[in-house]
């Protein structure tokens, strides 16, 4: 696979960036995510998580079963301040 291949389409993270994260010490899917933002896009890793895990497995020699599952957080959406201060405005 070419190092310019995009692994995370949402964040446009390439294989080169994943490999650099591993060279910089990432040893888990979350470690790669924190260094590159792979898996933090709109799909929340549904597209790239398995690819990142396969790369991590190949590069570290660990089986896919040994890799810790990543943590997930719900995506944050902007909310207008007046909604927070005064409710939904139906008062």
Plain-language structure description:
- The protein has a two-stranded antiparallel ribbon.
- The model has no long low-confidence stretch (mean pLDDT 88).
- The chain has helices spanning 15-23, 29-36, 49-60, 81-86; strands spanning 6-8, 13-14.
- It is mostly helical and 91 residues long.
- The chain has four helices and two strands.
- The protein has a single domain (6-86), classed as Orthogonal Bundle (Arc Repressor Mutant, subunit A).
- It starts with 5 loop residues before the first strand and ends in a 5-residue tail after the last helix.
- The longest helix has 12 residues, at 49-60.
CATH superfamily annotation: BFD-like [2Fe-2S]-binding domain
In DSSP terms (H or I, runs of 4 or more residues), the helix count works out at: 4
CATH architecture annotation: Orthogonal Bundle
Give the structural class.
mainly alpha
CATH class: Mainly Alpha
CATH-defined fold name: Arc Repressor Mutant, subunit A
Helix and strand string, N-terminal first? Answer: EEHHHH
Widest sheet: strand ordering: 1-2
Percent range for helical residues?
Answer: 25-40%
Explain briefly what this protein structure is.
Helix content is 38%, strand content 5%. By secondary structure, it is mostly helical.
Q: Main traits of this protein?
A:
91 residues, mainly alpha, Arc Repressor Mutant, subunit A, two-stranded antiparallel ribbon, 2 strands
SSE blueprint and pairings:
Elements: E1 6-8, E2 13-14, H1 15-23, H2 29-36, H3 49-60, H4 81-86
Antiparallel strand pairs: 1-2
Helix pairs in contact: 1-2
């Amino acid at each position: 696979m070419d190092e310019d291949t995009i692994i995370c389409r949402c964040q446009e993270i390439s294989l080169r960036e994943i490999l650099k994260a591993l060279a910089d010490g990432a040893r888990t899917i979350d470690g790669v995510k924190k260094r590159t933002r792979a898996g933090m896009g709109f799909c929340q890793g549904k597209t790239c998580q398995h690819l990142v895990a396969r790369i991590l497995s190949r590069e570290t020699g660990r089986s896919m079963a040994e890799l810790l599952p990543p943590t997930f957080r719900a995506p944050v959406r902007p909310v207008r301040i007046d909604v927070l201060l005064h409710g939904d405005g139906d008062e």
